[in-house]
Structure formats: structure tokens, C-alpha cells
Design brief:
By secondary structure, this protein is of the alpha/beta class. It is built from five helices and 17 strands. The structure holds coenzyme A (COA). This is Acetyltransferase.
């Protein structure tokens, strides 16, 4: 594909972005200076830049601020004498083949982020965590446990500081699954997307 025949739904990828075995949905925008490794990014989701995201499934309409890191690798703290990566990235040091079992552990502890999640600047989401739909992760949070849908978490380690909506509304939003509506429907219903009450009245 050349820029000349790119369509608006094609992913927009910034400068110095490394994509390793990564799948990008429609209207995905990736900011500069980032690494994505074995990541699936859902439609309309964006990253603002300076991100490192490994072994993760990111839903649709997810907003990821600058310097967010998802699934940083743990070194073998308890399992091996040496924590340094020469015991698994061995080939880089002329010390034999890389240790695939170690990388498989990381793969098995993938992170899942739901739809319409907002992840604040500099947050870190640890291996194996699931973040529910509609959740908010505060700036600089370190998320070590699963995050309830539509909750707001912050701090190190992140704790729930509130909910976006009351339970009955959350249930109705989840049932609507608006994040699966077509592009044309989104466009048509933009006035209601800009006004909570009329959205609730018309579509929930
Ligand atoms: C998490 C966030 C959305 C909370 O907003 P809010 O619901 O309006 O919460 P409040 O500002 O009323 O704060 C509630 C409490 O949480 C604390 N808090 C808020 N954000 C926090 C954060 N990121 N880390 C730690 N504590 C935080 C407040 O100090 C307050 O504590 P208190 O009850 O002891 O006084 C917001 O603070 C935040 O972090 N936004 C992310 C901004 C960002 O990174 N943008 C990137 C560009 S898109």
C-alpha cells in the first residue's frame, strides 16, 4: 500500500514504531517511539507515544496515553541464580540458543484490556492483568490486579477510587455493546455520543 491509496480507516503509524507480530484494527493510531510485540489492537484504539506493549489484547476505542507500559517482563527473580537476561537472551551474548520456555511464560501471562478503557500517562499494567470495559487507569498507576469494568483505579499499587456510573447504567451500557456498532452508526449517533442523557434515553 502506498500513501496515495491509503484510506482513513487504515492504521496511522508514527515514527520509530516497531511492530512484532502485531495486528492492528481499523482507524488505529499509534504515536511515535513505541514497541508492540504480539499485540492485537482493536478498531479506533490509539496510543499517544513512547509506549511498550507486549503480549496483550487491546479492545476497541482504547485510549493509551504517553509512556504507558503494558506487560513489562519479569526477570527470573526466584527461579534462577542470575536475574540478568543472558540466561534467556543467550544468543545475543554468544552463549547458546535463546531459552524459549522463558518467553513462553510471558506469552502465557498476557494482558487483556477491554473496550473504551482510558489508560493515563505513565501507567504500568503488570503481566496477567485483565482490565474491564470502560475502566479508567489513573496517571502513573501500577496495576497489579484485575480492574473491574467501569471502575476508576489509581496509585501504586492501583486501588479502586470510584466508579464512573451506577451499576444499573453499567449493565445497560455493557448490554448495548456500542463499541461493536458500525462506522456509519457511530457517525449517525454522534449527537447522542456527545450527550449522556440523550444517549441513555435513546439507545440503552
Ligand atoms: C484517575 C483520574 C481520572 C481521577 O479523576 P477523578 O475521578 O476526577 O478523581 P479526583 O481528582 O476526584 O480524585 C479522587 C482521589 O483520587 C486521587 N487521585 C486522582 N488521580 C490519582 C492518580 N493518578 N494517582 C493517585 N491518586 C490519584 C486524588 O488525590 C483523590 O484522593 P483523595 O480522595 O484522597 O483526595 C485522574 O486523576 C487521572 O489520573 N487522569 C489521567 C490523566 C492523564 O494521564 N491523561 C493523559 C492524557 S489522555
Amino acid at each position: 500500500m502506498t500513501l496515495a491509496n491509503a484510506t482513513p480507516s487504515d492504521p496511522k503509524i508514527g515514527n520509530n514504531v516497531e511492530l512484532k507480530q502485531t495486528r492492528l484494527g481499523q482507524y488505529v493510531h499509534l504515536g511515535d517511539d513505541a514497541v508492540f510485540e504480539e499485540v492485537e489492537v482493536g478498531d479506533y484504539s490509539y496510543t499517544a507515544g513512547h509506549n511498550q506493549i507486549h503480549y496483550a489484547t487491546i479492545g476497541k476505542f482504547v485510549s493509551i496515553a504517553t509512556y504507558v507500559r503494558i506487560n513489562p517482563g519479569n526477570h527470573p527473580t526466584y527461579q534462577r541464580i542470575a536475574q540478568h537476561h543472558f540466561t534467556y537472551r543467550s544468543s545475543a551474548y554468544g552463549l547458546g540458543e535463546d531459552d524459549n520456555d522463558f518467553f513462553n511464560w510471558r506469552r502465557e501471562h498476557a494482558v487483556t484490556v477491554g473496550h473504551d478503557v482510558w489508560i493515563g500517562h505513565n501507567a504500568v499494567i503488570m503481566p496477567g492483568v485483565t482490565v474491564g470495559n470502560g475502566a479508567v487507569i489513573g496517571s502513573s498507576a501500577v496495576v497489579t490486579k484485575d480492574v473491574e469494568p467501569f471502575s476508576i483505579v489509581a496509585g501504586v499499587a492501583a486501588k479502586k477510587i470510584g466508579m464512573r456510573f451506577e451499576d444499573s447504567l453499567i449493565e445497560r451500557i455493557e448490554r448495548s455493546q456500542w463499541w461493536n456498532w458500525s462506522h456509519e452508526t457511530l457517525q449517525e449517533r454522534m449527537p447522542e455520543f456527545r450527550d449522556l442523557d440523550s444517549f441513555v434515553e435513546k439507545y440503552l
